[in-house]
Design a protein that fits this description.
597 residues, alpha/beta, Immunoglobulin-like, TIM Barrel, 8-stranded parallel β-barrel, 6-stranded antiparallel beta sheet, 26 strands, 21% helix, elongated
Length: 597
């Protein structure tokens, strides 16, 4: 039997113990299938902290229930805030015995320096054309081998806590402890995680703690109390409640709410064996308006709650990863709590995505700002390059008035030469720049238009754009140093050593220890013109082999197959670095390294 302090429905040999926090209630009852929904059969007793409890015999897994809460003349029938499973977002709680991860296969995530993240949405990734309703966990499991073959070793799942309706991005959680009922039962998510682990893929879950709901939200005025006609015990009841998504910011200073959020964060690791959390918009947890340099609106309780939870996660699972989406380029997010930071391992990097997309989408080459690209490549929060997640597409970047990179490059013709060239150029930057690379579902098969929650991936594009898929496979292989000739791409070091504003050419050197098999040179042409017999410095003299030429017609028959296959760098005199001559196609990348002796 669980601790008597545990909230929710806790099964034991003789029945079930129910516990719910409702400090302003006058009376609370448990009603359910086990008592024919009798309103008075099972009253609960209250302790000094406003926690009501009842132990009811012969209650079983699968029974349904609600709490009947009386406050004066008002009556409320509430879903359990700690419900692990619900019939739907406005239905009943289903009693489920939360399972530990003891029976699940142990798994060690890949080291941060080799992580490749794939962001996906169960409702569209797990759906086939013509299927009714949103995609499911069962459907998503079918595509896990595809991700393994692509080279993905981390899946980042958009929120799958129970939300209103069947279609959603998931950023409107109604019941944060329950797996979305339209996606499948909780045991199916455990199976999803197990299957991913068997294929060598870690699973990170997106969690939303900057607001709840706002729709189908039983937490709202949960026990009948509120101030200023606001949210009641789970929420701020003043100006601090306001968020862009509704006046539903949790009260991070209230002990029971802090416990509620902490227990939810730990649940994903302890009951589903996930490998980390990606926190949605942490800027709105630490500041009412989601911005820096606004001390009057800072939420110190939100900040120290993040510190508490990231610390707790590291205690129980040292290898777990905490990812922040803050987008304010604030380095304190990835400092350790003992140094005043929030304790995240890494954070989404706004500077990279905004700088790179802006210049990929420039209508005229003359408007391409090479210094912005240089800053995108060099930016880091502290010394550790992997404190940032870098990408050109995410759910935010391909919706809300924005579209996929190919669609933005050539609206209405996302499979044009320019769209393919520029999107793969952006992909190459993601995998050759210091940081943790991430792609969004379908990016690797040239998905077009904009993302929405009822548009499944077009899996036929695996065949249609097999070459584009292959370039992503090759980029990922090089990024992970699978061939043991590009160890530098897993390293901390980078030097943007060549920047030609007029020719729109940029080159950078990546290395870990340096030398053959390690030092890697990346050359990117952001111009519509090819460059021939172009002189360029190299880190060392000798033969440099081209490991990838993004213009190869192996990747697309429209590509020109233009560019160097190898370069011989000759030693320079008078302390000059070795120099080689290269050829590079328009909107293309060359990746070079030297063979080990």
């Amino acid at each position: 039997m669980k601790s008597k302090k545990a909230k929710g429905a806790n099964l034991h040999k003789k029945g079930c113990r129910f516990s719910v926090w409702a400090p302003h209630a006058d009376e609370v009852y448990v009603i359910g299938t086990f008592n024919d929904w009798d309103k008075e059969a099972h009253p609960m007793t209250v302790d000094k902290n406003g926690v009501w409890s009842a132990d009811i015999a012969r209650v079983q897994k699968g029974d349904e229930y609600r709490y009947r809460i009386l406050n004066g003349s008002k009556e409320y029938l509430r879903i359990d805030p700690y419900a692990r499973r619900v019939t739907n977002s406005v239905g009943n709680t289903i009693i489920r015995d939360p399972q530990s991860i003891a029976g699940m296969e142990p798994f060690t995530p890949p080291p941060v320096k080799k992580m490749i993240i794939y962001e996906l949405h169960i409702g569209t990734f797990g759906k086939e054309e013509g299927e009714e309703g949103p995609g499911t966990l069962e459907g998503a499991i079918r595509h896990l081998p595809y991700l393994r073959d692509l080279g993905i070793n981390v899946i980042e799942i958009m929120p799958l806590a129970e939300f209103a309706g069947g279609y959603s991005w998931g950023y409107n959680p109604a019941h944060i402890f329950a797996v979305e009922s339209d996606y499948g039962r909780p045991r199916k998510f455990r199976e999803f995680v197990d299957e991913a682990h068997k294929l060598g893929i870690a699973v990170v879950v997106d969690v939303v703690y900057n607001h709840f709901g706002p729709s189908n939200l039983d937490l709202w005025q949960f026990d009948g109390w509120s101030e200023n006609d606001m949210g009641g015990i789970y929420f701020y009841n003043d100006w601090r409640a306001k968020t862009p998504w509704g006046d539903t910011r949790p009260d991070y200073g209230r002990r029971e709410v802090r416990e509620f959020i902490k227990e939810n964060a730990l649940m994903w690791l302890c009951e589903y064996n996930v490998d980390g959390l990606r926190w949605d918009m942490t800027a709105y947890i630490r500041n009412v308006h989601g911005r820096d340099h606004d001390p009057g609106s800072d939420l110190s309780d939100g900040w120290n709650l993040m510190q508490l939870i990231t610390h707790e996660i590291k205690k129980i699972r040292p290898a777990a990863i905490n990812i922040a989406e803050d987008l304010q380029n604030n380095p304190a997010l990835t400092k350790w709590p003992k140094d005043g930071g929030a304790g995240f391992d890494t954070q989404w990097n706004a500077r990279f995505v905004h700088n790179v997309r802006k210049n990929l989408l420039a209508a005229d080459d003359a408007h391409c700002d090479m210094e912005e690209l240089q800053n995108a490549i060099l930016h880091r929060y502290y010394l550790n390059a992997f404190e940032r997640v870098i990408y050109t597409e995410s759910h935010d970047e391909v919706a809300n008035g924005k579209a996929r990179v190919p669609e933005e490059v050539d609206p209405g013709s996302a499979s044009s030469w320019a769209a393919k060239k520029k999107s793969t150029l952006g992909g190459a930057l993601v995998f050759t720049t210091p940081g943790i690379p991430m792609i969004f579902q379908g990016q690797e098969i040239l998905e077009d238009d904009w993302f929405h929650d009822q548009d499944p991936l077009d899996w036929s594009k695996i065949e249609t754009y097999a070459g584009i898929l292959q370039i992503y496979k090759d980029l990922i292989s090089l990024r992970k140093n699978a061939g043991e000739v590009t160890a530098g791409l897993t390293g901390q070091e980078v030097d943007v050593y060549h920047l030609n504003h007029e020719e729109k050419l940029i080159a950078w050197h990546r290395w870990s220890e340096g030398g053959p098999g390690d030092s890697t040179v990346v050359i990117a042409n952001f111009s519509s013109h090819a460059r021939e017999d172009y002189g360029l410095a190299f880190p060392a003299a000798g033969h440099w082999m081209v490991r990838l030429n993004s213009d190869s017609n192996y990747y697309d028959p429209e590509f020109g197959n233009y560019g160097s296959s190898e370069v011989y760098a000759e030693s320079g005199g008078n302390d000059q670095p070795p120099e080689g001559r290269i050829r590079i196609a328009p909107y293309s990348v060359l990746i070079l390294s030297q063979n080990k002796p």
